[in-house]
Amino acid sequence: MDSLSPERHSATIPAQAQRVLVLQGGGALGSYQAGAYQALCHHDFEPQWVAGISIGAINAAIIAGNEREKRVAKLKEFWEMASSASPMPWAPLVRSDQARSVFNETSAALIATFGVPGFFAPRFPPAPVWPAGSPQSQSYYDTTPLRSTLERLVDFDRINDVKTRLSVGAVGVTSGNFRYFDNAEFRQLGKKIGPEHIMASGALPPGFPSIEIEGEHYWDGGISSNTPLDYVLDAETDTDLLIFQVDLFSARGELPQNVLEAAEREKDIRYSSRTRLNTDKAKRIHDVKTAMRDLIAKLPASFKGDPLVATLNAAARENTVTVVHLIYRSKMHESSSKDYDFSRLAMTEHWAAGERDVYTSMSHPEWLNRPQSGETMVTYDLCDNGLHIKR
């Protein structure tokens, strides 16, 4: 190819692109992602790459760390275990939004008091009793049970064989730097992903303790960025991508009418994925690359062999990215405690919502079409009316 004609490889249709599943953090809301994955399986969506933050990292590890036919069963095992401590006898009495709100708050309070089986347990004695500087003094809960759960539900040999690419994000406590633990990169470095990397991604302070890895302590990646989408876009710039992004907090919402609604809205904004920011950034980069290709095409032939032109040609290449964006929509009875309400009732509702939203998405398959000429990133949102809006 003439070096004055920058290469932009022909876009594959999304169905033929590398399939990526991107999972946001969100605690108890994570069963929505599990339901979404179950529905994706029914539509033969086999992710080649799973990236997650916090609870999304746990779901991602279970998916990447199991053969396809075992994944849904392992996800169900985790979520049924996690929701087993909340009182179910009350469920038949929950009919109105007001009664359901009371149920939710009571369930969340019990979880805060007694913890979640196989996940975390309250410290005894409590954190303030322990000597300053000790690991026990820095968090309210002990997450040791999670390690045993991960070892039981996740085949880390499969993860480290990179049968499915796995990326989970965490934040260095002392450095403040964001870091991704990526099995594809680790394999090249001769390192291995273990339970501690998944635990680090979900170590949200001050509830959970930091996790030490290679001499650095890490906290929940959601402190810095609650979505792995930006990492996926930055890490893969050559291969075309079809991304299902499953988020648990919505950036958009109604104006709060009271203090409780204000607390919920603040949390939604704080942990929402900033997908618009990522897609706007990608659009700006696309515009610059387009201008770069047009400018290089106008250069005289005498510049053909200039090394700078070769460098610019390489920088102007683009892959095509299609993002199908699913966001869990809160119900009227949910409040700021929704991410730690591990009741069985909430878990089954969130799971069913994830399934339903994927089935709705699949009933509008226009996102499977080849992107229009000149487009390199297309995002589809699932809206309340069930239609996709191209942004």
Structural account:
The protein has 391 residues and is α/β, with parallel strands linked by helices. Helices cover 40% and strands 15% of the residues. It contains 13 helices and 12 strands. The protein has helices at residues 31-42, 55-64, 68-82, 97-114, 144-153, 156-160, 183-189, 195-201, 229-235, 259-271, 275-297, 307-316, 344-362, and strands at 18-23, 49-53, 121-122, 141-142, 165-172, 178-182, 211-213, 216-220, 241-247, 321-327, 377-382, 388-390. Strands 1, 2, 5, 6, 7, 8, 9, 10, 11 and 12 form a 10-stranded mixed β-sheet that branches. Strands 3-4 form a two-stranded antiparallel ribbon. The longest helix is centred in the last third of the chain and has 23 residues, at 275-297.
Keywords, separated by commas or semicolons:
10-stranded mixed beta sheet, 391 residues, two-stranded antiparallel sheet, 13 helices, alpha/beta, disordered N terminus
